[in-house]
Amino acid sequence: MHSRNGAVHDAPRRVGITGVGSSLPEGRLSSETLRQRIAAATGLPLPARVFERATGIRTRRVAAPDEYASTLAVRAARTALHRAALDPLDIDLLLFASASRDVVEPATAHIVQTALGTRAHALDVTNACNSFVNGIDIARTMILAGRARRALVVTGETPSRAVRHEPDDAAQFRDGFAGYTFGDAGAAVVLEPVGSGGILDVDTETHSAHWSVGGIFGGGSRHPRGDEHTYFHGDGHELREVFEKVGTSVLDRMRHRTGLGWDDFRHILVHQVTVPYLERFTELTGVPEDRLVVTVPETGNVASATLGLQLDRVHDGLRPGDRLLFVGLGGGVSIMTMVWEHA
């Protein structure tokens, strides 16, 4: 049974990713240019290549003034729909899953829907850098429940808009240092029933006691107005310590539950903040470096678009039966794993 509103379908047994897309803005900001800009604004004697040495990031993509979170999401969505051989009207669920948004209200999903020309049920999913994987899991669940047939999950991330590129003094520079890793990007996936493969396992772990360690605290009822709260605030070292403290139990559970080891995955897609973070992740988990898809040196930390961007980079080279592990890390804080097998 099917209707546009309140659709009910026969529930499938498996749901898979059938289309993938990503988008990067044309604008680039090198770490050296960023250093020069900050040094000029603050008068701080920042040594050459200080950002690149500290983060491993050489450059990052930056959206133009007339490009928004929805702009990047729509570009990626069109690619994903094309690769899935679907029309926008074939989609009956649209999730905009991102840490960024165009406006506080309404949901950015409605802006994306208007641009694409779909009639899908549209809503936003927000959980910091885990938003995109959360969106995929929610879409999968709704398809398995028979509430949707085909879903489009999109993200558009513009965290560079929350970075103080010209801080007033050393205190502002230190407070916003973690934000200097940010870059902008979009990603999208199509989800629908599949006969084999698909999403095999999902697990999450949340440690909300650490919600205040880093974030953008403006725009809500706590700080509805004021430019100060529209910038990212957070201590990168403290954020790293929190993730090390919460440990690798979610990865251990996944391996025990599925019986899969690192060598069973063609690729392991991990949220990437900096190169040192990634190196520490492999040290703590034992994940082989040759399984990683490293994007952060050239794109920066693109928040929830990170895993979608990595998936798009490797998707064309996948063979049926190849398994991928998604590892999401998000402020709040949350950790998430998803096992997907290419059909």
- Helix share bin: 25-40%
Dominant shape: globular
From the N-terminal CA to the C-terminal CA, the straight-line distance is 27 Å
Number of helices: 11
Whole-number radius of gyration? 20 Å
Instruction: Quote the average pLDDT.
Output: 93
Topology as a string of helices (H) and strands (E): EEHHEHEHEHEHEEEEHHEHHHEE
Q: Numbering strands along the chain, what is their spatial order in the largest sheet?
A: 1-7-6-4-5
Q: What percent of residues are in strands?
A: 15-25%
The count of DSSP E runs of length 2 or more, i.e. the number of strands, is 13
Structural class: alpha/beta
Query: Largest sheet, if any?
Result: 5 strands, mixed
Q: Briefly, what is this?
A:
The protein is α/β, with parallel strands linked by helices and 343 residues long. 31% of the residues lie in helices and 22% in strands.
Write a concise keyword list for the protein shown above.
four-stranded mixed β-sheet, 11 helices, globular
Write up what this structure looks like.
Helix 3 crosses helix 4 (108-116). The chain is built from 11 helices and 13 strands. The mean pLDDT is 93. The chain has helices spanning 31-42, 50-55, 69-83, 108-116, 131-144, 170-175, 236-246, 249-258, 275-285, 296-299, 306-315, and strands spanning 15-23, 27-30, 59-62, 93-97, 121-125, 151-157, 185-193, 198-206, 214-215, 233-234, 267-270, 323-330, 334-341. 31% of the residues lie in helices and 22% in strands. It starts with 14 loop residues before the first strand and ends with a strand. The strands form 4 sheets. The chain has a 5-stranded mixed β-sheet with strand order 1-7-6-4-5, with helices on both faces. Strands 8-13-12-11 form a 4-stranded mixed β-sheet, with helices on both faces. The protein has a two-stranded antiparallel sheet with strand order 2-3. Helix 4 (108-116) links the parallel strand 4 and strand 5 (121-125). It is an alpha/beta fold.
